[in-house]
Amino acid sequence: MTVPGRRAAHPRRAFYGIAEIADAAELSRQLVTVWRRRRSHGMPEPDAELSSGPIWRGETIEPWIDRVRAERGRADAPPLDRAIALRACRRALRLAAVLLERPVRVRLLSQALSELRELRPDVSASADDELGRAARTLLTPLAGLEFDTVGTDANGRLRDRVLETLPVVREIVRLVD
After folding, report:
1. CA 135, CA 146: separation in Å to the nearest integer?
2. What is the per-residue DSSP string for 77-109?
3. Which candidate, 17, 24, 25, places its Cα nearest to that of 41?
4. pLDDT by residue (tens digit) across 56-101?
5. Structure pTM?
6. Cα dist from 98 to 7, 25, 56, 113, 156, whole Å
7. Is residue 142 within 8 Å of residue 162, measured between CB atoms?
8. Is 48 exposed, middle or buried (0-12, 13-18, 19+ CB in 10 A)?
9. Backbone dihedral angles phi then psi of residue 78, each to the nearest 5 degrees
């Protein structure tokens, strides 16, 4: 888990696709796709095109990701809407509840992860104030999560990672009240 007030460093990779760029830059996949197609926001051209889509080498795209992440916390960004912060808390708690069920229902787990990811653009675009930092601390480790539909051990690690973020929920609720 990250320290409140500090952004988590994204894991470095050898190669990135649209999904990996979106996770690392804390943006939606749709936004990254639009920026790439429009050749906007200084996004570098992909190093290769596969039938599954464009790919970038880490050394090509990581400087751009770092710049996008740094620009996200601008002082002129609007403060995070309190309702969105509380929605992030509810969705994190729903994800934890789904992971505590036995057996884990894959469809519900996938839906809970997807609903949590939907909030990333709003949270990422918010000001770097105490509430915005807390919400980013909550969402950053959760939004990039994947799960193994077969191996319960992978789901156990996922559950542990989600449960580690729950103290941040308490902090967000305190800040909103």
Report:
1. 20
2. SPPPPHHHHHHHHHHHHHHHHHHHSSS--HHHH
3. 25
4. 999 999 999 888 887 765 556 788 999 999 999 999 999 999 988 8
5. 0.59
6. 27, 27, 34, 10, 12
7. yes
8. exposed
9. -70, 150
